[in-house]
Amino acid sequence: MVTVSVPRPAAQCRPRVLAFHPELLHGTPLAQSMRDYTYFSYNANEALHLSAGERQTIIGCMEKIRGELQSPVFDKHSRSLIVDNVKLLLDYCIRFYDRQFTTREKMNNDIIARFEALLDDYFRSGKPATEGLPTVQYCADKLCLSSNYLSDLMKRISGESAKRHIRRKVLETAIGLVTDTARPVSEIAYRLGFQYPQHFSRWFKQQTGCTPREYRVQL
Hints:
By secondary structure, the protein is mainly alpha-helical.
């Protein structure tokens, strides 16, 4: 089900729902790409807000699907045309979400700022030592968002996923602890939420090209 919201007078509101059985997509390319439509797992407060023109585009897709379903002739082309129009509708939703991510700049920048502050507070509080590294789901829950919405928002606005953003914050914190303190590498590893120091050293080398000890000596 695709959830959309358009400010309109109550008398003109007419709910529309597109629902279909998975068998409709069986054996089609759309069945393989359904996981790409991440907005299916967005929360209700992350619904798509359509302009009047966008609303007509979505309604047009749904009317074409209705027309095929109500046609007295259901031939070998009917199913493929219905599936094609379902895909067209889903693709338009991606386009309109992209527009929404870029036009709601103030709100989105606020989310990103709160995301950054959340990560800063998490590492300053010492939570990684007891709760492990923060996950996208943890951050999304704290921001009252779905994990997919947070990830998609970060990709559209910053060019990197929320998971990648968290990893970059871990690396920044790790570099700070390695260069600005005399703590043993093992203590830094546990402080950052790594269960074993060797895992931290291997990960650090993958990110920087050298181990924490080598990085510290170079500086």
